[in-house]
Structures are given as C-alpha cells and as structure tokens.
C-alpha cells in the first residue's frame, strides 16, 4: 500500500478537522490546523513542544511519551498562557506523525465570542455549524430587538417630554410642576415658589393680536430661564401665568433680588413687527420652610394670594405671603 505523505495528511486534516495539531515523535508541533492557529494569532505554534503550549489536566501526565500510550483516550487540556481556554482532545498515531484533534466542549459559546470564530473555522460536517447558525440568528434577533427597544424608549421619552412641556414656550407645564413639587416635598428638600403673572398682557393681545402675544410669552419665558439656575424650574401654568420653583433657597433677601431682576427685565419693551410690546410682572412668593409640613396646594394658593397683593399695591412688584 502506498504510504500517505505528511503533506497529504495536512491537506486532508486542514479540511476535515481544522482545529488539530500534527506532532512528531518527541511531541513537538510540526503543523497546526487553521482554526488552532486562529486561537493564538500572535504565536507561531509549529516548532513548540505540545506540553509547553497546553497544560494537560486529565489524565495527569507530565511526559509526551506517556501520552502516546493512551491513543483514543479523551484528553482535557487548556492553553498554558492567557486566555486559558479549556479544550477536549483525542490523540491518534497516523503513520510517521501523531494527530491531536481538539474541540471546545461546553466552552464553545464563549470561545466563539472570544476568538471571533465563524462557520469556516469548523469542519463542514461539524454540528457546531448548526450551533453557529443558531447563534447568529439569535444575535441578529437580539440586535433587532435592541434597536427596536431603543426606538421605543426614544419615542416614550419624547412622548413624556411632550406631555410635560408647554408647546408655545418650551417651559414645563402644570402637570410637570405638580410632579416636581411632589418630588421635592417627598424628599424633604427646601425650596421657594414664585407665582408670576404678567401685567398688561391682555392689552398686547387686544391691540396687537395673538401673534404678538405669543411672541411676548416666548420672550418672557427666555428671560425667566436666564434669570434662574439650571436646576430650578420655570413652568407656564396658564395663559400669562408662570410658576418658578427655586430649590435650596431659604433667604427672603435672595428671593427679593431675583424677583426684582425679573421685574426689571420684563418691564423693558419687547419688539415685534416694528412696534414695542410693553408688559410688566407681579409676583407672589412662598417658602417651603414656612410650612410644617409643606403641602403643594396650600403653597400655590398662598403664592396666588401674595401675587394679587402685589397687583393691589400697584403691580410690577413682589410680595411674600403673610399669615
């Protein structure tokens, strides 16, 4: 019978069992299959002793000469260097060489991920091909699900944002204000509440039209946002009514300065269509620390009462609620 050459064995094994090592009589790797080479792309395996590349965990043998006396026995190995991937193997003599055929065993899923393996890295008849198809299908389904969830989450966030936003001014609306007040009160956080109403706004609407009124409201909204801190809240709760929630402020002097700045800026003419729109603002102010415990409804009612006290005193001023 004609003896099969080593080159022919290599060509055959590279196709049928691509994760294998061809060994000489001393246990030195003469050739490594393409999949085995892929597991150690930065290291040339040919020329290295098998037991320098792998640790044999079962059976516990320390010499290659002992290993070749166990043909066909299932071997448990792991790479000696990191990552210490665990492998299963079978050793069989094949003419002038010995073949060690390897597989991943139960670590196959982790190994496919760690080494970026594809169906081309396994024998065409290997059942692992079917596993890879299932993994790829699962990955595709999970990616599609992830993208769908991201779109749904984005849509949910947009819907929630719209539900809490005043469409004309971009400020928070009354619903958002209620949520913020409930959160602050529930957390026991000190805050001040300002109820602001525009003076003479009806005259702007009546004489210059609703487009001018909308422009004024948008400009007023920008001014209020500019005059408070990033963590504070400005909400439009009515046609020309606004509520400002200022967290952590407990001093009336500080609140008076903020209210005075707002009034001064809002008294400046707002230009629209070649004309000047003139409004001012009246404010009523309450502090959460004056309530034991704070109740949102009571604070809003008291701020409203303080607001109308400001209007009765001549408008364009602020007042604190007085028991």
TrEMBL record:
SUPFAM superfamilies documented for this protein: Nucleotide cyclase (SSF55073)
Domain of life (superkingdom): Bacteria
Any Pfam family matching the protein: GGDEF
Domain GGDEF positions: 189-323
Transmembrane segments: none
GO terms assigned for molecular function: catalytic activity
Entries under InterPro entries matching the protein: DGC-Regulatory_Protein, GGDEF_dom, HNOB_dom_associated_sf, Nucleotide_cyclase, Rev_trsase/Diguanyl_cyclase
Entries under PANTHER family matching the protein: DIGUANYLATE CYCLASE DGCT-RELATED, GGDEF DOMAIN-CONTAINING PROTEIN
Matching NCBIfam families: GGDEF (TIGR00254)
Name used for this protein in its record: Diguanylate cyclase
The organism of origin for this protein: Thalassovita litoralis
